[in-house]
Amino acid sequence: MNLLVLGPQGSGKGTQAKRIADDHGIPHVATGDIFRAAVEEGTELGKRVEPILASGELVPDDLTIALIRERLSAPDAANGFVLDGFPRTLAQAEALDEMLAGIERGLDAILFFDLSDAIATERIHRRAVEEGRADDTPEAIARRLAIYHEQTEPIVERYRATGKLVPLHADRSIGEVAAEISEALELLGEGATA
Ligand code: AMP
């Protein structure tokens, strides 16, 4: 199963993506996690992306696309994946389409975590205090949300047109959103065998 989770920071998509990946025995591929790990390890990639993450801007498309291309070709992604945080720009979405077409695979569903800016901002500020993420400064949080609207939201419309977009009410509890997702994925499974 090839899934994508899409939504603003604070929408709970990471939490749900991890759970789905565990349930289905497929990897959770989160670009933000990969970049943060590289920063912590002090690798070349880490040194390059550290100031970008701190500012809330996006890592350049070419770098991010190359990273995902390599990650999705790893053996553990052969049976599927849950992509989280990628694509974030139309160029990344086009590159992903090409990548998947090249290996004769497609996305089964795009889970769209719909959330108001007010709730997203409140949740991220709370997480920043609780987890103390170094890149969660108030300026970076505001910048990421602005970039989400400018660059990532157009992708939602692109995927809506495929008929595979699953809109979710992301302002509900973790359990309620999980139930909504399970129901949608079950329907998808029935559709596949019908
Ligand atoms: P996230 O944890 O997904 O919110 O990502 C944290 C930060 O990593 C973002 O604010 C960006 O600076 C960078 N990042 C993550 N995914 C991408 C992507 N697909 N394209 C560009 N930059 C990204």
Short description:
With 194 residues, this protein is an alpha/beta fold. The protein has eight helices and five strands; from the N terminus they run βαβαααβαβααβα. The mean pLDDT is 93.
Structural notes for this entry:
By secondary structure, the protein is α/β, with parallel strands linked by helices. The chain has one domain: P-loop containing nucleotide triphosphate hydrolases (Rossmann fold, 3-Layer(aba) Sandwich), CATH 3.40.50. 61% of the residues lie in helices and 12% in strands. The chain contains 8 helices and 5 strands, in the order E-H-E-H-H-H-E-H-E-H-H-E-H. The protein has a 5-stranded parallel beta sheet, sandwiched between helices. The longest helix has 23 residues, at 138-160. The radius of gyration is 16 Å and the shape is globular. The mean pLDDT is 93. The protein binds adenosine monophosphate (AMP). The site of adenosine monophosphate has 16 residues, from helix 2 and helix 3.
List the SSEs and their pairings.
Blueprint: E1 2-6, H1 13-24, E2 28-30, H2 31-41, H3 44-55, H4 61-72, E3 81-84, H5 90-102, E4 109-114, H6 117-131, H7 138-160, E5 165-169, H8 174-193
Parallel strand pairs: 1-3, 1-4, 2-3, 4-5
Adenosine monophosphate (AMP) binds next to helix 2 and helix 3.
- Number of discrete domains: 1
What fold name goes in the CATH topology slot? Rossmann fold
The main sheet orders its strands as 2-3-1-4-5
- SSE run: EHEHHHEHEHHEH
The major pleated sheet works out as:
5 strands, parallel
How many helices? Answer: 8
The helicity comes to: 55-70%
The Cα radius of gyration reads 16 Å
Number of strands: 5
CATH C-level class is Alpha Beta
Bound ions, cofactors and other small molecules, one mention each:
adenosine monophosphate
Estimate the mean pLDDT confidence.
Answer: 93
Distance N terminus to C terminus?
A: 16 Å
CATH superfamily: P-loop containing nucleotide triphosphate hydrolases
**Coarse structural class:** alpha/beta
